Amino acid sequence: DALPSAANSLALGASLNKIFQLSDYEPDSITPGRIQDSVNYPGLGEIGISLVVEGTSSETMKVLSNLEKSIREIKVNTAHIEMQDRLKVEAAATAYYTNTASLLESYETVKGNGKITRDSGSSEGTTN
After folding, report:
1. Which of 30, 44, 84, 109 has its C-alpha lying 20 to 30 A from 75's C-alpha?
2. pLDDT, tens digit, for every residue of 78-91?
């Protein structure tokens, strides 16, 4: 679950929901955003997240602490924090997933006399 192999916003929502449950917090909504290839990290995809957490300072800090402890890779890009009667954090974040990779396997055989012979074997496949 730390770095999923597909852009699955439902699984991301479930992960965020689990964090909220661990924090004894019920959000008004969970909003996964745009899915795209990562500009900064080749081979990764990104899912945008809009997040608003509002409650007492201890409730809000518990959610943020559990979000930080999550094994899912989430980068908070921007955050707006307001403190009046309650602590409110509005954040734009990014969750990541890997793109499917193609692998090409080749091999060579080394004989006991020190001569290397190349076998014509190779195989191709994909991995998630």
Report:
1. 84
2. 999 999 889 999 98
